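ENTRY TYPE: protein
CONTENTS: sequence, structure tokens:
***
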Amino acid sequence: MTMLDTLIDEPADALRLDSVRKVYGTADNPVTALDGVSLTVRPGTFTAVMGPSGSGKSTLLQLAAGLDEPTDGNVFVAGTPMSGSETQLTKLRRQRVGFVFQQFNLLPALSVLQNVLLPLRLAGRMVDVDAAKGILERVGLSDRLGHRPAELSGGQQQRVAVARALVMNPTAIFADEPTGALDSKSAAEVLALLQEAVRRFGQTVVMVTHDPIAAAHADSVLFLADGRIVGRLEHPTAEAVAERMTHFSNASAHRLSGVGGE
């Protein structure tokens, strides 16, 4: 089955959140991280999520990826509800979701190739070594297959993490500040890889970032504040994203000053 066939067979939405709320804390002291968020993400698109500190963007990513469950509302990945027991959620994540984290999360004792193949082994899926090597060639690491993570630069390690996500051919790749630990050159290379995954191979990428330059690589940017979606920017530029973020930051500071905050 080709990537195109897969996209045709799947529901129109790669990701859907319906009135999702997430409340932490106790009944006496609840903290609402997400407050009735609804959104859809279509297959083959690149979405960035931005917002001030405490806006709920990391919580949104965790719920969308099945790493946590909402207090209210529903999350669907390719039409499948991301709910159930931890065993069921683990299975869904392995089938549907790819992850790219800020700190790479590679196993230091395994080689580059072994790290990329690990998700397939954990999921009990057929291990196609040639396919994994092909993905590593695409991310520019065909000459690093036997290296350990400690022998790679930060940018190279993050490219391994991207390859590890791609090898599962997931419905969606969730990236949490994927360039936060990288220099500008390495960051640009990783963002170009994520763009290629979307443009050339039909992947769906949802990325949380604080960096307007990183967000400008996406097709659209969702802005969160106080646990709610407060804006969306199509075809973003770094300048337009920075201007919008300045507006939200100023609004947050104004609200804090009104309740005695510094």
